[in-house]
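Researcher: Please predict.
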Amino acid sequence: MKYILRILFSGILISLSYGIYINSTGNTLFGNKIIGFTVLTSAFIFMPIFLVHRWKGKRLQDYTLSKENLEKLRDLDQKK
């Protein structure tokens, strides 16, 4: 999964660079299409895969403010 993310991120950077280059050479319509496709790819393909990879094996309850977590924070604050 790590290698897929690296390859996909590299492709996104290359595509964005190519779109900016094409945009600066005068073909703005095609350059804007490449940049737009790159942004959509990064938002709808790369980000969900990245988030799934980063959250694998973690519990959401550890990162939410529940009554138990608030009590732990209060206990830590009172000990100081």
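Model: The chain has a mean pLDDT of 90.
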